[in-house]
Amino acid sequence: MGTFNEVALESILSRYENKMELIRETEIYKWEALRDFKDAWNLDSPNLPEMLKASLLGFAQYLSSPVAYHFISLIELSKYYPNQTKGELQRLSDESCRLDDRIDSFYRSTSRLLKKCLEEHAEDGASLVRRYFPLQAISAYLTLLNPRQHYYYKDEEFQDYLQIIEDERAGAFKSLTADQNSGMAARYRYVTEAYGNLIAFLNKRHPAIIEKSDSLLSPEFAALDPNHHFLAQEIVFSASTYLDRPSWVRSSQKISEKLCQIHEKDLGEESPERLEAELYSTVSKGANKLIEDADPLSFLSAALGTGLPEREKRELFSRTIRLLRISANTPIDFNGIPEITPSELNGSANAREHRLALFLASCRLAKSDTEKARSEFTGAFNRAIRDGGLNARPLTVALFLSNPSYFLPLDADTCLYFEKKLDIKPPKVISGETYLNYLDLIYRCVPESFASAVYSAQLCKASLSQREAGPESTGKPEKASRPASVKYSRADFLSDVYLDEAQLDIVLGLLNDKRNLILQGAPGTGKTYAARRIAYMLLGNTDRDRVRMVQFHQSTSYDDFVYGYRPTADGGFEPREGTFSEFCRAAREECTEAAREGRDALPYAFIIDEINRANVSKVFGELLMCIEADHRGEEVINPVSRAPFSVPDNVFIIGMMNTADRSLALIDYALRRRFSFFEMRSALENASFRGTLKDSPSMLKLVDAVATLNRTIEDDPSLGRGFEIGHSYFCRNSGTVPDPDRIVEYELAPLLREYWFDNPRKAEKEISRLRESI
């Protein structure tokens, strides 16, 4: 049995459980296909080809490849060699024989038959027959024949799953060749082991998921899969298809790959003209005839764009996947798709010709980013605008829908998001050259997938729009409208944070004296949570426009924080404000307005998480003097902008510092002199905190055990009080009490092994005490 990262698997299961109803609605066809197979399967049927067609049709998605349905190959064999085909299927289903031998026999015998069929019956219409059955198809046959014993799988999704859970067998599995007999049996053993581990994990840790799965099935369907193999397979497929990114992304890319093959006539013996005509006529019906003179870009814009309800989109994708004979899942959501309608891709009379040329050039570029491919793409893009009468922005959206891993849409939301996040402005004039330059800049800075980033842009749309609100019609500059805030009082703070009134008075006094405060302490002592609420206390409300939070890391620089040069889409650079300079400018404007109105300026709070992860002196630069309480309002000349700069008196800086991480830098004395330091301690013995656990005696026992452990940690010369275990380990935002077993096994045990890495016996002894307490 291989080992895997249980925390990663827990994350998959948690996200799967949240989306389970919608995923099951999309995937229920698998249970329907199994029922239809059971009803129709009869190897003694006088018409074997028709029986196989009726039995396997519902499962065709799992017996397919990007080139042809593999079940068609089986039907072709049964047409010309019925006795041999029947015999191979009987041997494959014989559970008294070794599985390895059955797979080996089926592969070798059917490969010989397929070769013979191609040689003897090509003129009779056997041109679609493949020369072998891959393991994916064989696993599906085995599952249909005996679903209690076997598992079907899709190679790409299964490999993704192994990588996500960090299974130690992932590398060995990948090294085996799927379509050669020498690796098939071993490969299938990996599949069986991984699925078996998942089902065992579900039975032990998540029986509620199994119960919920059964409740979403009819009694008939539940009886078809009593060992929950289909549930395990659904989770594996969901891990990469539905949970890791917007679920339409993989399906869209698979469709684009097949459409590229169709239009480039690269389909082997398949008929591209038939597929093309059938696809676009079918899609036009499904899209309420939104498509005329269809091509891949207009097709995907209609299938994914604004015109269709989500249910119709799913049905359209399902039909398209079946028609194109690709191995892909029907999406369960369509998150992260910019608004577009097919009419936005209308142009001159030859617009379809230019859209098609651009699509094919984009496929070649995404496949191989060479100078030649880039030149072909820019030429096709520019001709589509110049000669095809097409608008550039909708074209970029259509390109994104066709290949969301390579292209970005230049819609307003996405451009504004990246301008705010990365200080990269979109090109003023969109051409093929400026578009690729923009993509290159974004690609260097965005670690996440483009599809996820575009989805994030849409989630940020409202707040970004508020910040970009323009001047009123009077011509007077006006502040952007602020989101609704609520009052935040001293009583609210004491209710939210496990500090008493005396400690709160100390914190507020330190901030008023120094204007700069660092909350230091061990992980899990609530520093970040408390920092926001301290800021709300200063403000008297939860106005997020006057609170800014950043997190320092090893790469944080003066350019990011104060002022620096940023790339532009045309290949140049321009000076831009950093996050702190921008925040101080807003605070200074508030001071100016308050002075004009004869009132006190409203306070602003700047929060820096993990302040000691960066080279703080290097990040602050000359601001080390400006942030000091005695020098607030004094101007210095910024070396980049050559303009005067100051930190106003109404800016309060709250930093957080982890005292347990040995890899972090120490705060130098120059910075220490400008900050006050308040230690956040574990609140395990705080009455308010313990009151939240009153309904869980086992959790209270664990908390008492950890409190005892903290005294041991404090007395250890190699650790000390800065390494104590905080109360946040026992808190959840939902207000529910977490599972004490999971906390011990997956949070505290790894931490203690790290603490006593040089004394494993000590670590295991303390872990055992925690286990015994619950």
Strand tally is 9
* Helix percentage range: 55-70%
- Class by SSE composition: mainly alpha
- Uncertain spans, ≥5 residues at pLDDT below 50? 63-68, 268-272, 284-292, 462-484
Summed up, the helix count is: 37
What's the multimeric state? single chain
Strand neighbour order, sheet with most strands? 2-5-8-1-9
Mean pLDDT comes to 81
Which geometry do the CA atoms define? globular
Percentage of residues in DSSP E strands: 5-15%
* Rg value: 31 Å
- Terminal CA distance reads 29 Å
The main pleated sheet reads as: 5 strands, parallel
Task: Detail the topology: elements first, then pairings.
Layout: H1 6-18, H2 20-27, H3 29-40, H4 48-56, H5 70-80, H6 82-92, H7 99-121, H8 135-145, H9 155-164, H10 170-175, H11 181-205, H12 207-215, H13 219-224, H14 229-241, H15 248-263, H16 272-286, H17 296-304, H18 310-324, H19 351-367, H20 371-386, H21 392-402, H22 412-422, H23 432-445, H24 450-459, H25 461-467, H26 490-496, H27 501-514, E1 516-521, H28 527-539, E2 547-551, H29 558-561, E3 563-567, E4 573-577, H30 579-597, E5 604-609, H31 616-620, H32 623-626, E6 636-637, E7 644-645, E8 651-658, H33 669-672, E9 676-679, H34 687-691, H35 697-715, H36 740-755, H37 760-773
Parallel strand pairs: 1-8, 1-9, 2-5, 5-8
Antiparallel strand pairs: 3-4, 6-7
List its traits:
774 residues, five-stranded parallel sheet, two-stranded antiparallel ribbon, mainly alpha, 37 helices
